Predict the 3D structure of the following.
Amino acid sequence: MALCFEDKEYVLEKSLDEIDGMKATPEEMDAYEKHYKDATKATCIMVTTMTLELQRHYEDYWSYEMNKGLIGKYHKRARQEKYEMVKSLVACKMKDGESVSNHISRMRQYVDRLIKLNMNFDEELVIDIMLRSFPSCYDQFILTYHLNNNETTLSQLHNLLRTTEAGMKVKGVAFTPVADPVLAIVQGKGKMRKGPPKMNWKGKSQAGSSSSGTKGKSSSDVPPISDPKEATCFYCNDKGH
């Protein structure tokens, strides 16, 4: 940061080559002296910010050689860490009962770390990854968000999600997705009726043909009989049944 502030970061990308003072032009001598001074200052800054072990290793190096050696030494480690951060970010899902604020904060930690590892992130891509991480109870919010073609920052999206979360809590919407649609109906509408509705047999039966094809009598045409043996069968008209 100090080198960028003083416009001296070029010494990290350009080596300090010796020139022949007898043959060099005045412009070339001025450029060399400026580069020498800037490289010396950058080298001192880099060495003072290193650990003792690195200081002993790079004490005779210029800033350009130090930067090249450090990149080769730590690039593989940074590449591995970058892969792990991307993997964690994409696999991050909102936990059961977790608040929106905690979930977004957890994902932003991954994003911030990737930015420090020199990975450029488009904000829209970050928002899409975050929306993908929410459970199915946020599907209506995500659909509305895309239909309205909203262009929001991460902070604005956070506020929208907090408002949605508060409304879902008021309505008693569960934060865990319901996989079984029948179970969802039971939870939303009350208990379901099992089997066909009960028939009402208390009314008078209608006279006409039965399912067996024989003509039946209505219950009002059958006179009451005290002796069961003398009773006439309702279906076959025989006594004693």
Confidence is low (pLDDT under 50) at residues 174-194, 201-220. DSSP finds nine helices and two strands in the chain.
